[in-house]
Amino acid sequence: MLHIDVSADPRYKIDRRFIRSFLKDGWEKRLLPSGKVSVAFVGSRKARELAKKYLHDDTAHPVITVPHGTKGALFPGGDDVIGEIVICFSQVVIFAAEQDKEINTVISQFLDHAMTVLSNVLS
User: Model confidence at 112, in pLDDT bands (50, 70, 90)?
Assistant: First the structure.
């Protein structure tokens, strides 16, 4: 079973139920292992800080996926932690406006990308 922790600043209007449902469905389709995944929505400053740490660049990436075992993980946990997904909420808003899409559609695109990364690491 997949356990999903979603964290976000209250000013970010996200649909936690949609996020959990989308991740669970995608997880099952990819036949990924049971465990815990955290999804954090952050601002551009924090996204840039994490990109420096994990990706060694100075860009606020829309989504950063940190697989289990990565040194200095944002949300350290036990052996059942599979990975962390960090989404820059300001990038979600920008992509949604540029592509004339709903916020949940853009979030689902970012989550799908993150699941692909985790799937590649876990395979």
Answer: very high
3-state SS track over the chain:
CEEEEEEECCCCCCCHHHHHHHHHHHHHHHCCCCEEEEEEEECHHHHHHHHHHHHCCCCCCCEEEEECCCCCCCCCCCCCEEEEEEEEHHHHHHHHHHHCCCHHHHHHHHHHHHHHHHHHHHC
Listed by start position, the domains of the chain span 2-122
Q: 2-122: what CATH class?
A: alpha beta
pTM of the model: 0.88
